[in-house]
Structure formats: C-alpha cells, structure tokens
C-alpha cells in the first residue's frame, strides 16, 4: 500500500521542496492527472500542482473553476484501493476549490504553530467541520509557546494529543529534497509523524 500526497496549491512545498521542482507540463493542473503522477519510490507517489503563470496568479478565479475535475480524480484514487493514504496539501482559505476538496476528506488536520498569529486566527476563523488541530514546530524551552500552549489546552477542544516538535532534521530533509522518513527516520519529528499516522486511521 502506497501513500499519495496531492499538492492542491502552487505555493505548497510538497512537490517542489521535498522532492523536485516541476513545471506546468508535469503537474495535474497542466495535463490529465493520470499522466501527471510521479513515482518517487515504490512506497510513495506524488501528484504535484505545478506552477502558475503570472496571469493565472493575478486572476485565480479563472483557473480554480476549471480544476474541479481533481475531485473526481481523488475519488478514483480512493476507489482503486491502491493507496493506504491520500494526503491533500490544501491552502488556507475558503475558495470553492478548497471547500470542494475538504468535503472529500475523511480526516482534516489544521496545522498550527504556537504563536500570536495562529492564536488570533484560531479565535477568529472557523475550522472545517470535524477538523482537528495539529501543533507543529513546538520549541522546547520557549516560554511564549509554553504559555500559549497551556491556553490552547484549555480553550481548543480539537487539539490532537500529539505535537510535532521543532527538529533540525525537518529543515535538513527539505534542503536535501528528501522525505523526512527517508532522510532521518531516527529523528524526533519522524517518530512523531509516525505516531500521528497510527493515531489517525487510514482510509
């Protein structure tokens, strides 16, 4: 069984920083999604978003309306039974495309860093229905983060019982263009991500 990360925004780093840079001709926004997949290893397939033109960046509504077919692609991948995980790297926001893709998810994780910015957002902006909050980049010894984390434990009922601590291995694996589990499987972050995978059941 193979996991399949699908990048759903041009600004995401799932395909570009983690593995390789891809152009518009090698992505699901530029061609049939069946031809756009990348086999990284026998245990990992990718479906990258690719890059947008300057005109597309200035007028996102024009291309978002044409990308609805990715929903059918996700349903086809789920029905194939080939993948234990189909991970959607979604942008923040409430665009029609994002809402459509969230509705297809069995589980939704809102990734939050313990800082003032996320603290304000969590109190002002609604999470998708059924979403859980995953804390990322938690620093041991940070008084500010510790104080905010204690507040969140009391106020955020959707917090997952596991956090991803700050780990230099995470930055190193991105610079090396390798998945974390391949680059440093013995790192703290890799162990925490593995625990997270066991916590949230596969589809």
TrEMBL record:
GO biological process: cell division
Entry keyword set: Cell cycle, Cell division
Top-level taxon in the UniProt lineage: Bacteria
Pfam families named in the record: CBP_BcsQ
InterPro entries: Cellulose_synthase_operon_BcsQ (IPR017746), P-loop_NTPase (IPR027417)
UniProt-listed NCBIfam families: cellulose_yhjQ
Protein name (Swiss-Prot/TrEMBL): Cell division protein
Organism: Salmonella enterica I
Lineage: Bacteria, Pseudomonadati, Pseudomonadota, Gammaproteobacteria, Enterobacterales
